[in-house]
Amino acid sequence: MQPKKPRFNPLVIAIVLAAVLMVWSVLGGTGGNANGSSMAYSTVVHYFESNQVTKFSLDLNTGVITMTLKEGAQELPNAAEQTTTQSTGGLLSGLLSSSSSAPNGVKKNDDGTETVSYKLPYARMFVDHVSDYIAQYDAANPDAPMVYDYVPAKETIPWMEILFYLAMLGCTGFLLFSMMRGGAGGGGIMNVGKAKAQVFDKDNSKRVTFKDVAGLEEAKVEIMEIVDFLKKSDKYKELGAKIPKGALLVGPPGTGKTLLAKAVAGEANVPFLSISGSDFVEMFVGVGASRVRDLFEQAKQKAPCIVFIDEIDAIGRARGKNAGFSGNDERENTLNQLLTEMDGFQTNTGVIVLAATNRADILDKALMRAGRFDRQIEVGLPDVKEREEIFNVHLRPLKLDPQLDRSFLARQTPGFSGADIANVCNEAALIAARHNKKFISKEDFLAAIDRIVGGLERKNKIITDEEKRVIAYHEAGHATVSWILENASPLIKVTIIPRGKALGAAWYLPEERQITTREQMMDELAATLGGRVSEQLTFGEISTGALNDLERVTKQAYAMVAYYGMSENVGTLSYYDSTGQSDMAFTKPYSELTAQQIDAEAKLVIGKAYEMAQKVLREHADGLKELAELLLEREVVFTEDVERIFGRRKKDILREQKEAEAKAKADGAAVKGEPEAPAAPAAKPAPEEAAPAVAQTETPEAPADGNTAAAISKTE
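-> structure tokens emitted (716 positions)
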């Protein structure tokens, strides 16, 4: 249980008190006086300069001067001018009374003179000059010199000033003490160079083991060697083997790199120091390097232990790149210190460094070499089997429908990371609770997947009938081309309900393949262009709804030409930089002539795909119209409806034929002891007669997720 924070901050209270005392000490002495009111200093001086003052008395304690004035050049004050407001003293009254210039207590004498009292704002300054006025008057009136009297000021201790300075001294001391101590979190100014690493000891209640990590089987096998070394280091040392310096976990966001590192520490039962790469970055010069030194000092004290640096690309970027655009070398200094600590003159016995990043291509080569990070472990997106295991982990606390097929959920989420799957499970629970259900069903998970990939449904969005018709034919064009072409991704459903930024969408379930042929990519391009072609053939005009389609097609075409070497004119060349170390943003690795050829070839590729889509839609114009009208009627069309209109896909028929032939072949081998010969050649002509093959691929920068395809974007 955390202690309660104080209701009031003592530092704030001290500062406020000091401010009040300062104002009081400066202005408190101007408090009002009942015997007189302040006036312009020049008025009193004028009376003395005109030799009208015959007698005066000055009290230096209060600053009140009482003068006897005779007629002269300066007009005497009128008794009617005196103020009737009596001051009560204090700060406010002093401020108010300082604006009054009328004398208080004007008295007319029998000899024609007047006795007047004023409060001088600068009494001590007046005393320094009054001797000149007295000498001037005595010279002018030798028979009747000026009579004057001073009431000396009492020697008092300036308590207010003393209290003010004591308060200021106390506030300064309290502030410095707080900064040096650094509070409970150790974030004081004296601790700015300390590493802010979270320590997970073996006794920590949040211990994570490999049981908590679903999937990642290959990564587990590779990293288990480190765990085994930490557990049984003696058998390795007997053979002369050294402890691995470090391992780099590389993979897309959300795949479980951080969780895997924590599991290593939990499995090995050793302390685990976790810190983010951004924690080394500070506005102060030299702080990053200092924190690196402090981190490894802590690790040495807890050895054997594991140091985990998350998002190491924050400090591990390649040095010397674009140096003219950055005047801050703090990050490079931090990196240099990290390199020294990992492989310097001092040996970090028993300290293993684990790091995670999704940008391994931009890391410095010196950081990646053996001796610092001895191995690089790929933590990729899970396959269908691993996704099912991840679903089993995240479905444990949920109240599910007993009939729920978990393998079905795994098949419906290709390209999803572990974090995405956790989000799907939580979103499905929210949807079920929103509809007051007692358990979470299959429909809730499908709705959650749709919402995460496509966004929230916007059924109330205002769309005219004409726009709705264009959207229907656009999405029907996508669905028709992808269904007819053999190697396009299989269709799940088509909808014209606005979702997120899209006015309509066609949902596909791409195959989980590792390589993609040129024909497969051409089919995918044609399916993506099917919406634009359908608009042109049906309405004779095109719209802005194909913006997203054209963007994807353009990127794919340029990748085919410039990256994959799938162009005859450009040749089998690749200008893709897998290291991320080149300056392609400023200098292209090819000439201007080659750039023109790339542009022309990309345009040619898109033109061929456009012709393929036109051919398919002209041949199946009736099916296109029927599907579009069905979309206008239902708003959502599923695979069964498309299959009823166009028939079964050739690829499905061929797959079933191959499965049947393989089964018959196996049965024949079991009965006769040898496989039937004619079965194999019978299936060969079919692929030759099928439509040109192709499927979806992505540029190297973006792995194929394939969960949403052909989403229409309408510009406003």
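The chain has five domains: 1-28+156-191, 31-151, 193-378, 384-454, 465-580+588-651+693-713.
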